[in-house]
Design brief:
Alpha-Beta Plaits, 3 domains, Rossmann fold, 427 residues, Dihydrodipicolinate Reductase, domain 2, six-stranded parallel beta sheet, 28% strand, 36% helix, elongated
Length: 427
């Protein structure tokens, strides 16, 4: 009997696209048994046809999207170009033409997920995006399928390898932020412009995607409060060690009675928590459900082959659906319309480090300002005294963001407060 062949097109041949191409060829001998049919990359869309691409069959390359779109034999489109346009238009074209789509594009899914999933549902097509969050770590499929029997109340994670590497080096090797960033850039973990990573924007997009799926209600990137790691200093790291904690850039999403809380920011997290042991460029996502209790997913969050692993897993899933004629079975799971809580109303514990005048009555004044703004103090530490200046570290109980913000604004107006050096949330 003639072997059935499922044809796919690859859009983009950068780091991830090359990884996908390599991995498909590496698994060529088992693909038929895995899927029930052969899988073939029949076309690859690239920008520059003249560029030499070692190990890639040049006859597959094209710079014409219409050539792929109009090829009726191509059933799966794998988008690994990144960016919003032209990726969004191409994916919509493909779905409207009845082609199934796999993407690794977190920017696109975080911003236009509803539109793309609606187009897929309309055409009874698969639209899968496991690689859009946490690279090679399976998290989208577990949230949509394996944990579908749970009411999930919390998703928190380290979902940016660059920032985790930087904070690991600061913590373990006493590097400054600038030194650790330079090392991350040298090793290829950080881009030439690291803004999206170090300011929390990359993690924010991923958390929007995870929260949407976990809580069955649409969360977009604009809903996510984002704060990066550029203000974390060696002094903050030293205090974290003293408090038996580490500092991690966490994506945090909670489903509460008053709405969804979602943000990305550095947090002190106790060494006993499973996320505290996640080092270097590794990622991890921690999930709490009413039935499963606590579960954590850990692994490589980026890189050529780890990300390709997630992409190919989706491609194999789509190919199986095609083979067994059951495409479009898992579409958008956002059937609720839950409110997004204003971040000012979110409650957090805080670690505050400030420079004050070393004179009687200063601590009493600080305590009064905090009391006036409903900020309860859990701990005060004074270690460094220099001439007429002292460093105070204050740890608060849980307090609404806007109460702390108002208190800090008033403190900054006081002559006895020389500087508020650090404001870091505590898990």
């Amino acid at each position: 009997m003639e072997k059935r062949k499922i044809k796919a097109a690859l859009l983009g041949l950068g780091t991830v696209g090359t990884g996908v191409y390599k991995l498909i060829h590496r698994r060529e001998d088992v693909m038929e048994r895995t899927i029930g049919a052969e899988l073939e990359i029949s076309k690859i869309l690239v920008h520059d046809l003249k560029k030499t691409r070692e190990g890639v069959d040049a006859s597959l390359l094209t710079n014409c999207w219409q050539e792929i779109l109009e090829d009726e034999e191509i059933q799966i489109v794998i988008e690994v170009m990144g960016g919003i346009e032209p990726a969004r238009s191409m994916i919509l074209d493909a779905l409207h033409a009845g082609k199934h789509v796999v993407t690794a594009n977190k920017d696109l899914v975080a911003e236009y997920g509803r539109e793309l999933l609606d187009a897929a549902e309309e055409g009874k097509c698969d639209f899968l995006f496991e690689a859009a969050v946490a690279g090679g770590i399976p998290i989208i499929r577990p949230l949509k399928q394996c944990l579908a029997g749970n009411d999930i109340s919390e998703v928190i994670g380290i979902v940016n390898g660059t920032t985790n590497y930087i904070l690991t080096k600061m913590f373990e090797e006493n590097m400054s932020f600038e030194e650790a960033l330079a090392k991350a850039t040298e090793l290829g973990y950080a881009e030439a412009d690291p803004t999206a990573d170090v300011e929390g924007l990359d993690a924010g997009r991923k958390v929007a995607i995870m929260a949407s799926i976990a809580f069955h209600s649409r969360v977009v990137f604009q809903d996510v409060y984002t704060e990066g790691i550029t203000k974390i200093t060696s002094a903050d790291i030293a205090y974290a060690k003293e408090f038996d904690s580490v500092i991690k850039l966490l994506g945090v999403a909670h489903n509460t009675e008053s709405g969804i809380e979602v943000g990305v920011y550095p947090m002190l997290i106790n060494k006993e928590h499973p996320l505290a042991s996640v080092r270097d460029s590794f990622n991890a996502v921690f999930v709490h459900g009413d039935a499963v209790d606590d579960a954590m997913f850990y692994g490589r969050g980026a890189g050529e082959l780890p990300t390709a692993s997630a992409v190919l897993g989706d491609v194999i899933d789509v190919a199986r659906d095609i083979e067994y004629q059951c495409t479009g079975r898992i579409s958008c799971t956002c059937y609720k319309e839950l409110p997004i809580k204003a971040f000012d109303d979110v409650k957090n514990k805080f670690f505050l480090r400030m420079q004050v005048k070393n004179q009687p009555g200063v601590l009493a004044c600080i305590a009064k300002v905090f009391g006036d703004h409903k900020v309860s103090i859990a701990r005060v530490v004074q270690k460094r005294v220099r001439d007429h200046e002292a460093e105070l570290v204050i740890v608060t109980e849980k307090v609404k963001e806007y109460h702390l913000k108002d208190a800090l604004h008033e403190l900054q107006e006081m002559d006895s407060i020389l500087e508020i050096s650090s404001v870091i949330r505590e898990y």
